[in-house]
């Protein structure tokens, strides 16, 4: 009996030893294949989330598996813009909002700003006011639209309608705010932040910022030890505890940034060509986010109904009484029309949408055909005298005055102060050489009309003549006098283009557009600091890790 038990014990030990040596589960996951040291040893050493499986989708997001597709039109360019020549692009997997950002989503943002930065306080009066959508976009010189001006943003009847009157800058600030609020909630759920601190402890001097937490976690909420905890045990963390106290990138629990999608991402997600996949190739092209050459449904359940909200013809925004073509005359409630093959709603119609890119007529696919994006401005953390990253406070918040005179907050207390990258990051690099890359290969000095290839010292001299620039759009200037009054100078010169580094691409047709603009390949531009009643936005998020998500397979043919 004893010998049998001993034999079994020896056999079990041998199996365990074999599993450890050959990569079995359990012990090997906690042992370094580099040093043999234990990972996540409670006594100290290297800490890493070895149980991480894959990124979870943030609130409101849908997984979009990346791939290769043809960006741009393959049909005639009726408008003769010549700005959507077909190019082959590859997009990495990412996430995108299932619907456009709605009024109720944006009002939650406004409510947070109003509570944290009371407009009644002189130092904060521009924070809330700078984020409010421009409701006057609904007005028309020869139209009676005051109902929308007064009600569209706030009335419960429009709660799930896409927000409009938001410029590109405001949309970006919303995405930054959303990132911090989502990660703040995640850290609370994991016990790294005190329960309900995001509501009860927040004020203008105690605000959570994702990047500030990762880089200087002890300074989060101004170093308030009653808010920051050590982990699931809810033990208070002191500033002296330097390791294994705060969540880090290696913890794998915080999500990447919410942001505006790039133009290539938006078009790829909108056209959803995956619906035409047959094994490892696509079968034909798609004119709209749905299959078919028409805007009406052909299946029995929805036969004859419009698949998007758009202007049917001159004076026809929603059909006749008793027979509404698309169920709306202005915007419509999100999810009112069928989703595309990625599960995204309203990628055609309802509202057009801001994307991240600076507009240029040509997509320079010869320079890059992987995650293409024009608009990179590389920044780095500003390091103070003590060798720590500097953080904004309520006393040194940063504001921008837009060309229309509106003042918006561009930084908040608790966020890291950033400065452009310099020679320390760019010296002898082959992939980038400057902080601002918006004009790369297009609009830089060699692209100007007066550039002379034979000119000596061309790298030292700059063309100062405004009319010599390739993109010399109007430059409206806003300044202030000694009394604080705004002085607006409207640029009335005869310009040859409206393109500049401050105009952004917007995609998709809207309730105000004809069918032509429903094609996801169409692209237009608008000043980043101006808003309309037909442009909204949705957020995206990068995917970290694997390309595919086996739990969420896209629809396709077999």
As laid out across the biggest beta sheet, the strand order is: 1-4-18-5
Series of H and E elements: HEEEEHHHHHHEHEEEEEEEHEEEEEE
Approximately what portion of the residues adopt beta-strand conformation? 5-15%
Sheet/helix structural class: alpha+beta
Shape descriptor reads globular
Low-confidence stretches: 1-6, 8-29, 238-243, 453-465
Structure description:
By secondary structure, the protein is α+β, with helices and mostly antiparallel strands. The chain is built from nine helices and 18 strands. It starts with a helix and ends in a 16-residue tail after the last strand.
Which descriptors apply to this entry?
558 residues; alpha+beta; 9 helices; 18 strands; disordered N terminus
Walk me through the topology.
Layout: H1 2-22, E1 61-64, E2 67-71, E3 87-91, E4 94-97, H2 103-116, H3 125-131, H4 146-151, H5 168-189, H6 197-200, H7 210-215, E5 258-259, H8 263-271, E6 277-278, E7 281-282, E8 352-358, E9 379-381, E10 399-401, E11 407-409, E12 418-420, H9 423-426, E13 477-480, E14 486-489, E15 503-507, E16 523-527, E17 535-536, E18 540-542
Parallel strand pairs: 8-17
Antiparallel strand pairs: 1-4, 2-3, 4-18, 5-18, 6-7, 8-15, 9-12, 10-11, 13-14, 15-16
Summarize the structure.
This protein has 558 residues and is an alpha+beta fold. The protein contains nine helices and 18 strands.
């Amino acid at each position: 009996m004893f010998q049998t038990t001993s034999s079994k014990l020896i056999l079990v030990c041998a199996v365990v030893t074999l599993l450890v040596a050959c990569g079995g589960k359990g012990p090997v996951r906690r042992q370094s294949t580099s040093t043999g040291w234990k990972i996540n040893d409670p006594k100290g050493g290297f800490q890493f989330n070895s149980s991480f499986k894959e990124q979870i989708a943030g609130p409101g997001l849908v997984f979009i598996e990346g791939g290769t597709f043809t960006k741009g039109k393959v049909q005639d360019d009726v408008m003769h813009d010549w700005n959507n020549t077909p190019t082959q692009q590859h997009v990495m997997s990412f996430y995108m909002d299932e619907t456009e950002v709605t009024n109720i989503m944006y009002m939650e943002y406004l409510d947070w700003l109003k509570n944290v930065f009371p407009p009644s306080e002189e130092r904060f009066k521009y924070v809330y006011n700078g984020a409010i959508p421009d409701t006057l976009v609904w007005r028309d010189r020869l139209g009676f639209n005051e109902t929308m001006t007064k009600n569209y943003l706030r009335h419960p009847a429009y709660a799930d309608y896409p927000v409009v009157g938001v410029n590109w800058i405001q949309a970006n600030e919303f995405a930054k705010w959303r990132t911090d609020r989502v990660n703040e909630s995640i850290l609370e759920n994991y016990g790294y932040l005190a329960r309900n601190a995001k509501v009860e402890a927040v004020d203008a001097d105690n605000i959570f910022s994702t990047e500030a937490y990762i880089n200087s976690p002890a300074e989060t909420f101004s170093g308030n030890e009653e808010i920051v905890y050590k982990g699931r045990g809810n033990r208070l963390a002191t500033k002296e505890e330097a390791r294994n106290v705060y969540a880090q990138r290696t913890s794998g629990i915080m999500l990447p940034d919410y942001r505006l999608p790039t133009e290539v991402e938006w078009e790829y997600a909108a056209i959803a060509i995956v619906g035409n996949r047959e094994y490892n190739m696509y079968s034909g092209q798609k004119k709209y986010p749905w299959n078919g050459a028409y805007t009406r449904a052909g299946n029995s359940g929805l036969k004859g109904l419009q698949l998007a909200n758009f202007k049917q013809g001159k004076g026809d925004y929603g059909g006749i009484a008793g027979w509404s073509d698309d169920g709306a005359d202005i915007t419509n409630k999100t999810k009112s029309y069928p989703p595309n093959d990625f599960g995204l709603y309203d990628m055609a119609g309802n509202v057009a949408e801001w994307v991240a890119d600076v507009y240029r007529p040509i997509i320079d696919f010869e320079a890059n055909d992987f995650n293409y994006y024009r608009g990179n401005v590389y920044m780095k953390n500003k390091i103070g005298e003590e060798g720590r990253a500097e953080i904004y406070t309520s006393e040194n918040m940063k504001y921008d005055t837009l060309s229309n005179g509106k003042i918006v907050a561009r930084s908040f207390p608790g966020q890291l102060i950033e400065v452009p990258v310099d020679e320390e990051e760019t010296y002898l690099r082959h992939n980038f050489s400057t902080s601002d890359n918006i004009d790369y290969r297009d609009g830089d000095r060699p692209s100007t009309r007066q550039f002379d290839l034979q000119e000596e010292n061309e790298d030292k001299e700059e063309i100062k003549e405004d009319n010599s620039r390739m993109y010399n759009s109007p430059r409206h200037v806003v300044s202030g006098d000694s009394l604080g009054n705004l002085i607006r100078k409207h640029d009335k010169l005869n310009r040859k283009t409206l393109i500049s580094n401050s105009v952004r691409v917007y995609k998709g047709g809207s309730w105000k557009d004809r069918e032509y603009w429903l094609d996801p390949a169409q692209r237009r531009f608008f000043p980043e600091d101006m808003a309309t009643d037909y442009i909204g936005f949705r957020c995206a998020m990068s995917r970290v890790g694997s390309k595919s998500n086996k739990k969420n397979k896209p629809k396709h043919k077999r």
